[in-house]
Design goal:
Elements: H1 3-13, E1 15-19, H2 24-36, E2 41-45, H3 51-62, E3 67-71, H4 76-85, E4 89-91, H5 97-105, E5 109-111, E6 113-114, H6 117-125, E7 131-133, H7 142-149, E8 157-159, H8 168-173, E9 179-181, H9 188-192, H10 196-216
Parallel strand pairs: 1-2, 1-9, 2-3, 4-5, 6-7, 7-8
Length: 217
């Protein structure tokens, strides 16, 4: 899958689950449950034990039927390792210009983290494909995204932090290109209680919310 196809898929689906888990096995269960609900994009964070091998194994297992990327990538070195493991996109909670450069050199989609207008424009000018606004909820949620998009309509934003079933529609209507969704979708407590179907149903709900919100814009 080319970088262009990866970005098109992210925009099309509009939901990027942030997979944090205590083990590779738990992460894989979460992914299977969410895939059953129709979402086939996954950000595997570097906080998951043995994350690089997990990315490699998931990429081999799913091929192009699921889009596997890396998250919480903090350094250029981590980015290189994730790309070597097969990550189709790189997401970070912070802005590192060298990481953006490495991803661009390898033709891999990159979504660095930024919060202020200056950081967001710096990331975009450095070659970010989308800019992860994090933590979006801490600065007013959808209203903050709307305020950013007014002077910066050309910058594609993926808010993360504070995204839930209750706020998702507002983020999309505010101008978000896609949503980074963590614990509200990857519900580890539900998994540990054997309620994998909760994740499946929430995945369906997120897809419907995004579809409806886009239609209402």
């Amino acid at each position: 899958m080319t970088k262009r196809e990866v970005l098109q898929k992210i925009r099309e689906v509009g939901v990027v689950p942030v997979v944090r888990a205590s083990s590779a096995e738990e992460a894989t269960r979460a992914i299977e449950a969410v895939r059953a609900g129709g979402v086939n994009i996954f950000e595997i964070t570097m906080t998951v034990p043995d994350a690089l091998n997990l990315i490699k194994n998931l990429t081999a297992k799913f091929g192009e039927t699921a889009l596997i990327g890396a998250g919480t990538v903090l350094t250029p070195e981590q980015a290189r390792d994730c790309i070597a493991a097969g990550a189709k996109f790189i997401i970070s909670p912070v802005l590192n210009l060298e990481t953006i450069k490495i991803c661009n050199e390898n033709d891999v989609a990159v979504m660095p983290g930024a919060l202020t207008p200056t950081e967001i424009v710096t990331a975009w000018n450095a070659g970010a494909d989308l800019v992860k606004v994090f933590p979006a909820g801490a600065l007013g949620g959808a209203n903050y995204i709307k305020s950013l998009k007014a002077p910066l309509p050309q910058i594609e934003i993926i808010p993360t932090g504070g995204v839930s079933l209750k706020t998702a529609a507002d983020f999309i209507k505010a101008g978000a290109s896609a949503l980074g969704v963590g614990a509200d979708l990857i519900d580890l407590q539900a998994l540990r209680e054997g309620n994998d179907d909760i994740l499946t149903e929430r995945a369906r709900q997120y897809l419907e919310i995004v579809r409806t919100a886009r239609a209402d814009k």
